[in-house]
Amino acid sequence: MVNRKKSGDESFRDKDIPSNNLDESDNKGIVDSVDRYSIPQKAYREKFQIAISSIIASSALTISKFIIAILTNSLGLLSEGMHSGLDVFAAMMTLYAVRISRKPPDVDHNYGHAKFESLASLGAVLLLFVVAGWILYEGFERILFKHVNPEVTVVSFGVLIASIIVDYWRSRALYKVANKYGSQAIEADALHFRVDMITSSVVLVGLAIVFIFQIPNVDAYAAIVVAILIVYTSLGLGRRTLDVLLDKAPKGIQGRIHESIIGFEGIKKVHSIRVRKVGQETFVDLHIEVPRTYTHDKAHRIATNVEDKIKNELLPNCDVVVHVDAVEDEMSETIKDKVRLISEDFPAVKNIHSLYISKVVSDTELNAGGQNEDLNLKFRPLHLYLDVQMDDKLDFKIAHGVVDDFEKKIKTEIPNIIRVTTHIETDMDIESSVGQEEFADKTFLDKIKGIALSVKGVTECNDISLVYIKGELHITLTIKINPNHLKSSEEGGLEGSLHLGNFSNSSGDDSSSINKTGDHYDSNSNNSRSQRSEISVEKAHSISTMVQNLLLQNTKASRVIVHAEPDE
């Protein structure tokens, strides 16, 4: 079972989603998720504008630096010009990546196109490494082999100071947008401008030393420092970009997810937690194990609660997929649960009901005069009785073969069940079992009422209905049970005319009592305890069963349904 929360927006035009010759059902799931993955128009516009302004600023700085570098013969300025030129190229890559990443998911890119920004970021980092390599090469060549005297002018100082101001302004604006929308491409662009600002400052200091102290090689040394700074500042972004491209999970997030949901009621185990980032969104998928006796609806509710927990408390902007594994739970599964689960493996078995078990007494126990009560149901040999409903048109020989296999599987999977007795009956759906209510004469109704009232504790009998279903008589009735009446009968030693026996509470537990309203009981209500006697559900069921059996014995009814109420 997989649970996934979707936005369910189907308002997008068909042309927005390429079909790739898939059928309509294949495309529908993609269309449903388009809105959730799409970059909002406002965010796209802001990112697009910042990328355009970066291209303009980088172009202006590049042209001015190259002109001054050629005029002054400064390696520092030339390296700055190269750097700014690559800034232009990086800004253009950023612009392209922003446009592509805006595209919604399609049949080829189910998780969207946000990783194009990470690819652009990686490309920008590689360009920075190329620039650093070229600057290092030129710097060492000038120090070791060439002797170039750069010409320092006021204009060169002015260009560098202007460059520092522009770089600071652009890097700050770019980092703000990058942090706001989690864009690695914009972050890489911001890094370019920040590195440009730092390197321009270093070159400015180098030119100042050349101008003041007339030391020509300082310019080359400044260029080498620039290259080292470029490599150092690029490594961090490069590592983060590779983490995204290689689907590295955020540090510690699996442990936090596990701790936050392992305590949920019904969850036995959490495993296979996987987390990855794609652009601004984080994708999470995990497996939870719940008892196999849970209904699909209950398991789905647990999975939804897990989704909400992760979305609301851990990762606000995320997509969560929860896979539910149904597992055996020895602590809570009953024999009835196990048998019902086994029956689901046999399509011909439509339903099972009336499951009973009895303890199989061994020869040793018989010779000892009784059973070994120390053995519980989990370990002692058992005999299972049950009714199996099957299609009434099914060939009896085939039906018997299915039931034989069913019995064998029960004994295989529940080893202490050594005998199985099944009763095959037809599967009656609600449409085929519609009955016809009949009116009975007063004599028959009085007979039914008299039989019910003969049972100790029954004070009233009403709402008697007679229904014929496929020629069989079904009786329904309502009885009222008064615990005081039952108690007085028992204390007086009265024996019922039908020899119904003693009705003492075999469980010895008076906590399961019914209050005067019949809705529920309050185990902490001392007042209600003092005002009335109590009767357990077990006792009420026993009385109803006695009424049921007496009516089956003394009427021609095939089925009797007794509804019991407390006599207020």
UniProtKB/TrEMBL annotation:
Region of interest (Disordered), residue spans: 1-27, 488-538
Q: Which residues cross the membrane?
A: 50-71, 119-137, 152-170, 191-214, 220-238
**Ranges annotated as biased composition (Low complexity):** 496-513
UniProt GO cellular component terms: plasma membrane
Compartmental location: Membrane
**In this protein, which residues make up the domain named Cation efflux protein cytoplasmic?**
254-325
Nuclease keyword on record: no
Where is the Cation efflux protein transmembrane domain positioned along the sequence?
52-246
The answer to keyword Oxidoreductase applying to this record is: no
For membrane topology, the record states: Multi-pass membrane protein
Superkingdom classification of source:
Archaea
Quote the biased-composition stretches of kind Basic and acidic residues, using this chain's numbering: 1-17
Record-level GO BP terms? intracellular zinc ion homeostasis
A GO MF label: cadmium ion transmembrane transporter activity
Any idea which UniProt keywords this protein has?
A: Membrane, Transmembrane, Transmembrane helix, Transport
Query: NCBIfam families from the entry?
Result: CDF
Entry protein name: Ferrous-iron efflux pump FieF
- Organism source for this protein? Candidatus Nitrosocosmicus franklandianus
